[in-house]
Design goal:
The protein is mainly α. It has one domain: A middle domain of Talin 1 (Up-down Bundle). Helix content is about 70%, strand content about 5%. It is built from 15 helices and 5 strands. The protein has a 3-stranded antiparallel β-sheet. Strands 4-5 form a two-stranded antiparallel sheet. A hairpin with a 2-residue loop joins strand 1 and strand 2. The longest helix has 30 residues.
C-alpha cells in the first residue's frame, strides 16, 4: 500500500513515514528557483555591467551626498546631470528590449511615457510650490528639445551611418503627430492672444477658464489618438514599400531579445524611479547653479533642464536611428512631444485646478510663437517621409537659434505667472 502524499506548493509530505512531517522540496521547485536566480543574475549583468557609460553611475549618489554636506549647487547640478546620463541610456536599452515583444508602435509610446515621467513628477512638485512659470518653461523646453535637438541628432546620426541611402519612415505617423502638435499650439495660442489683446470678458478669469476647458478637450483628443493608434490600425503605420510585412514583424526579425519581457518592464520601473529621484535634486540646485554659472533661470529651465530630462529619449532615439528603425525614433521624439503637449500640459492644468493653483495655457507670446514656428518647421521636414543627415543638421541648427533666442530673452514678470 502506497504512502499517501500531501502536496503543499512545491513540497510533498509523506505523513506516516516522514518523521515530524519534514518538508522535502521536489526537483521541479529547486530547478525553478535556480532558473529564476540565474535569469535575475544574467539580467543584472546585461543591464548594469555591459555598458561603459555606467561608470558615471556613482555621480548620482555623489550628488545626493553633496546636497546634504555642501552648498555648492553648481557642483550638485553637474553631478546630477552626469548621474542621470547612464540611467537614461539604460532606459532606452530596456525600452528597445520591450519593443521587440510589443512592436515599435507600443514601444515608442512606452519610451515616450517613461521618458516623460520625470517631467510629470517635476511639474507636480513645482505646482505644489506655486512655481507655475517653472512648470510652463520646463514643459515648453521639453517639446522644443524633443522636436529639434533629439530628432535632429537622431536623423544626423542615422544619416551618417546610412550615408548611401535616405532612411524611410511612415508618413502617416508624421501627419497624425503633426496635426496633434498644431492642435496643441492652437490650445496654447488662444489664451495668450486673449490675454495680450485685453479682450477678456472677465479680466484674469476668462483665460484661466478657457485654459481649463481647452485642457479637457486636449485630453479627450489625446485619449482618442491612443485608441486610434492601438486599436488594430497598425497596418497604416508600415513604411513605404513594406506593405506586406507589418513593422512589428520587421522589428522581431532584426534581432532577438536579450532579456525577458517582464524583466524589461521591471528595469523600466526601477530606472524611471531612480531618474525621477535624481531629477528632484537637479531641480533644487537650479537657482544656485544659475548664480554660480551666471545664467538666467529661464534659460536653464527652457534649454539646459530639458536636455537632461530628455536624455532617455535622446539616447534611445539615436540608437534606433542608427539601427535604421526610424518609425521607433519618431515614436520616441515626436511621440514624446505630442504626449507632453497634448497630455502632460493639460494634465498639469487640471492638477493645478484641483490644487487651487492658477495654472493656465498662457505661455506668453514669445514662448508660444517659438513653439508655433518650431512645429511648422518640423512638419515640413517630415512631410516626404524620408530622413538624412542634412535634415538632422538643419534641425540641430534650428535648436541653436532657439537656444540663443532664450539666452537673450527676459522672462516678463507678470502677476499671473
Amino acid at each position: 500500500m502506497e504512502t499517501p502524499q500531501i502536496e503543499m506548493g512545491g513540497f510533498k509530505v509523506n505523513s506516516p513515514q516522514v518523521p515530524n512531517g519534514v518538508l522535502r522540496p521536489t526537483v521541479s521547485s529547486s530547478w525553478n528557483s535556480r532558473g529564476t536566480v540565474e535569469r535575475a543574475l544574467k539580467s543584472i549583468r546585461i543591464v548594469i555591467f555591459t555598458s561603459k557609460l555606467n561608470l558615471l553611475m556613482p555621480f548620482g549618489p555623489a550628488s545626493i551626498i553633496l546636497h546634504f554636506t555642501t552648498r555648492r549647487h553648481g557642483l550638485i547640478f553637474l553631478f546630477s546631470m552626469l548621474g542621470i546620463t547612464p540611467l537614461a541610456e539604460r532606459l532606452g536599452y530596456a525600452t528597445e528590449q520591450l519593443a521587440i515583444y510589443t512592436g515599435p508602435t507600443v514601444g515608442g509610446l512606452l519610451n515616450a511615457t517613461f521618458g516623460n515621467a520625470t517631467e510629470m513628477i517635476i511639474a507636480v512638485y513645482a505646482l505644489k510650490n506655486g512655481m507655475i512659470r517653472v512648470v510652463q518653461q520646463s514643459l515648453l523646453g521639453s517639446i522644443l528639445s524633443n522636436m529639434l535637438l533629439v530628432m535632429g541628432c537622431a536623423f544626423f546620426a542615422g544619416g551618417v551611418v546610412h550615408r548611401n541611402k535616405d532612411q524611410i519612415f511612415s508618413k502617416a505617423t508624421a501627419v497624425v503627430n503633426s496635426g496633434l502638435l498644431l492642435m496643441a499650439v492652437m490650445g496654447l495660442m488662444f489664451p495668450a492672444v486673449l490675454h495680450f489683446t485685453h479682450s477678456e470678458v472677465r479680466q484674469g478669469a476668462s483665460e484661466v477658464a478657457l485654459s481649463r476647458f481647452s485642457s479637457c478637450i486636449m485630453l479627450v483628443a489625446y485619449a482618442s489618438y491612443l485608441y486610434f493608434q492601438l486599436s488594430g490600425r497598425s497596418n497604416i503605420y508600415s513604411p513605404i514599400g513594406s506593405e506586406e510585412a507589418p513593422i512589428e514583424d520587421i522589428a522581431e526579425e532584426d534581432e532577438e531579445a536579450e532579456i525577458g519581457m517582464w524583466e524589461a518592464v521591471t528595469w523600466l520601473a526601477v530606472l524611471t524611479l531612480w531618474v525621477s529621484f535624481l531629477s528632484e535634486y537637479l531641480v533644487n540646485a537650479i537657482e544656485g547653479a544659475s548664480d554660480s554659472l551666471n545664467l538666467p533661470v529661464a534659460f536653464i529651465s527652457v534649454i539646459l533642464l530639458p536636455i537632461v530630462g530628455n536624455a532617455a529619449e535622446h539616447a534611445s532615439a539615436i540608437m534606433f536611428a542608427m539601427k535604421d528603425k526610424l518609425d521607433i525614433t519618431l515614436g520616441v521624439a515626436i511621440g514624446s512631444s505630442t504626449q507632453i503637449s497634448m497630455f502632460v500640459i493639460p494634465f498639469c492644468v487640471v492638477i493645478g485646478w484641483m490644487m487651487g493653483q492658477r495654472m493656465d495655457l498662457n505661455f506668453q507670446l514669445f514662448e508660444t510663437a517659438t513653439l508655433f514656428i518650431t512645429v511648422l518647421v518640423v512638419a515640413f521636414m517630415l512631410q516626404d517621409g524620408t530622413a538624412n543627415y542634412l535634415k538632422g543638421l538643419m534641425l540641430i541648427l534650428c535648436y541653436l537659434i532657439v537656444a540663443a533666442s532664450f539666452f537673450v530673452h527676459v522672462d516678463p514678470q507678470s502677476s499671473d505667472g
